[in-house]
């Protein structure tokens, strides 16, 4: 069973930090064949949502306060589930926990994500709605999505 918790950057152990970066690297850089600067400085001020199976982090997202990624919105980003664990509804659990913590930490703030276009139906099931035109982010089609309060 996957257990979830949230931590600020200073509460992460070096092992957790290693596992987070390894998971993000495995999916966002290697699997998606996308060369980009993953370590962007925003992790320092983020709330990190960790999904554990035993002691292994198999799911992850980060929550950013308004003004960090978007001027008018709090944000959830770097949403990822280990490729070995997909198809088990862990992604849905991760998004729900991330929304709950974002609302707790940043009450009354709308939440914005930059969703890969093929995942729009997934995020729509969690209440997000697409806004604006699609765009390329690191060579991958994305669209902005908003979750109102």
Can you walk me through this structure?
- This protein has 3 helices and 7 strands; from the N terminus they run βαβββαβαββ.
- A 7-stranded mixed sheet has the order 1-2-3-4-5-7-6, sandwiched between helices.
- Helix content is 26%, strand content 36%.
- The model has no long low-confidence stretch (mean pLDDT 96).
- The protein is globular.
- It has helices at residues 14-31, 90-105, 120-124; strands at 3-8, 47-53, 56-64, 74-81, 111-116, 129-137, 140-147.
- It has one domain (3-147): Aminopeptidase.
- α2 links the parallel β4 and β5.
- By secondary structure, it is an alpha+beta fold.
Map the helices and strands.
Blueprint: E1 3-8, H1 14-31, E2 47-53, E3 56-64, E4 74-81, H2 90-105, E5 111-116, H3 120-124, E6 129-137, E7 140-147
Parallel strand pairs: 4-5
Antiparallel strand pairs: 1-2, 2-3, 3-4, 5-7, 6-7
Describe the strand arrangement of the main beta sheet, using strand numbers.
Answer: 1-2-3-4-5-7-6
Q: What is the CATH C-level name?
A: Alpha Beta
Mean pLDDT: 96
According to CATH, what is the topology? Aminopeptidase
Largest sheet: 7 strands, mixed
Low-pLDDT runs of 5+ residues are: none
CATH superfamily: Gcn5-related N-acetyltransferase (GNAT)
Number of strands: 7
* Percent of residues in beta strands: 35-45%
Class by alpha and beta content? alpha+beta
As for the number of domains, it is: 1
- Total of helices: 3
SSE string: EHEEEHEHEE
Shape: globular
Backbone CA Rg: 14 Å
Summarize the amount of helix as a percent range. Answer: 25-40%
CATH architecture: 3-Layer(aba) Sandwich
Note the gap between the termini: 30 Å
């Amino acid at each position: 069973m996957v257990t979830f918790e949230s931590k600020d950057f200073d509460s992460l152990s070096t092992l957790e930090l290693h596992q987070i970066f390894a998971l993000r690297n495995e999916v966002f850089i290697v699997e998606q064949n996308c060369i980009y600067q993953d370590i962007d400085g925003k992790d320092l001020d983020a709330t990190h949502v960790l999904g554990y199976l035993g002691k292994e982090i198999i799911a992850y997202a980060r929550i950013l306060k308004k003004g960090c990624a978007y001027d008018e919105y709090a944000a959830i980003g770097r949403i990822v589930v280990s490729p070995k664990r997909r198809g088990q509804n862990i992604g849905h659990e991760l998004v729900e926990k991330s929304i709950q913590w974002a609302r707790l930490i940043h009450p009354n703030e709308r939440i914005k994500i930059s969703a890969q276009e093929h995942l729009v139906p997934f995020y729509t099931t969690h209440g997000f709605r697409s806004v604006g035109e699609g765009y390329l982010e690191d060579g991958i089609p994305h669209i902005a999505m908003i979750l109102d309060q």
